[in-house]
Amino acid sequence: MTAPAARGYPAPDPTPHVSALTWVSVFVRMLAIQGAWNYETLLGNGVGFSLEPVLRRLPGGVHTDAFKAAMIRESAYFNAHPYLAAVAVGALARAELSGVPPERIERFRTAICGPLGSVGDRLVWAGWLPLSSLVALIAFGLGAGPLAVVLTFLVLYNAGHFGLRIWGLYVGWTRGLAVASALANPVLRNGPAYIARAAATVAGIAIPLAASRVVGSDGFTLAGALVAGAVIAVGLVRVHGRIEGWKLVLILIAVFALVSVAR
Amino acid sequence: MTALLPLSLLGGLLGLDVVCFPQMMISRPIVGATLAGAFVGDAATGMLVGATLELIALATLPFGASRYPEWGSAGVVGGAIAATLHMEPAGTITLGVLAALTTAWIGGWTLVKLRQWNAWLAGRQRGALEHGSRGAVVGLQLVGLTSDLARAMLLTAIAYAAMFPVARATVALWSFDLVLSRAVTVGAASAVAAAAAWTIFHSARGARWYFAGGLVIGLLLLSFR
Question: Which among A33, A114, B26, B60 has the fewest CB atoms less than 10 Å away?
Answer without folding.
Answer: A114
